[in-house]
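Title: Prediction job returns without error message
Component: structure pipeline
Severity: low
Priority: P3
Assignee: unassigned

Description:
Job completed but the reporter wants confirmation the result is attached to the right record. Sequence as submitted:
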Amino acid sequence: MPACRLYARYAATKSVSSQVMTFLSGVEFLMVHHYWPNFIKPQKFSEKIWRRMLFDRNQQYIELSDKWRMRSYVASKGASEYLVPLLWHGDDPNLIPFDDLPEKFVVKATHGRDYNLIVQNKKLVDPASVRLQLLKWLQTNYGDTFGLGTEWCYRHVRPSIIIEEFLEEEGRFVADYKFWCFSGRVECATVHLNRQEKHVTLTFSRDFEPYRFPFPLNDPGQRVCRPPGFNKMVSLAETLTDDFDFMRVDMYNVNGRIMIGEFTVYPGGGYLRFVPLELDSMLGAMWPDL
């Protein structure tokens, strides 16, 4: 691991100069995005995400990044009917009622990304191994360990566990629709397919027309039909994000049944590289100047 990243992780948890942390973030940004950022007057989307991580301390980001507390936020918006059905919640893996769970389910730690266990056949799962993995996750502060440790909101999420219904459509994993919302308006949606096989994406406008620029992992050879209720998904995404200058909300659509997955405050943790660079500029122009 580069020395600047090791030091930055340390700096993120200590009282050190914000100028030092900003400089180290600039170095990391340059390595990822191949241009030197302007965090003071950012113009591109990637610059604005890093500025949010470094300087924006909106307490609602903590609530929305918490996979448990975000359910209360959705309910406050009158949309609780669209939440993925919850099977269990707690903070002690030893209390998970494995015997009472269905054959298929999804286990998530609530305080970071990729803390997920997808169970498709409970008989093949060792409960002790699941509990051990969850204990490791619960004892980790995701905000301090990923990247430079700049994803501020995750450092303040109280770790817990949720178990949700397993979502499938015709025996396959459902597509994941990620709505990019600027000032409460959906500008585009990335559709993620085949996450457990060959992960690819397609990008559409709010009217489900092919987007002008491809996003990372885009595969033009893939095809996906407009899902039933897509207009409702757009409307719901805008209702849920109308308090923010930018927010991404992820949803599923199972044969027309719409469900809200999660919110993303920092897409890719700032490491999502947009090619061509015009896409970075175009998305940045949609985000109101800071």
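Comment from assignee: result matches the submitted record. The chain has a mean pLDDT of 91.
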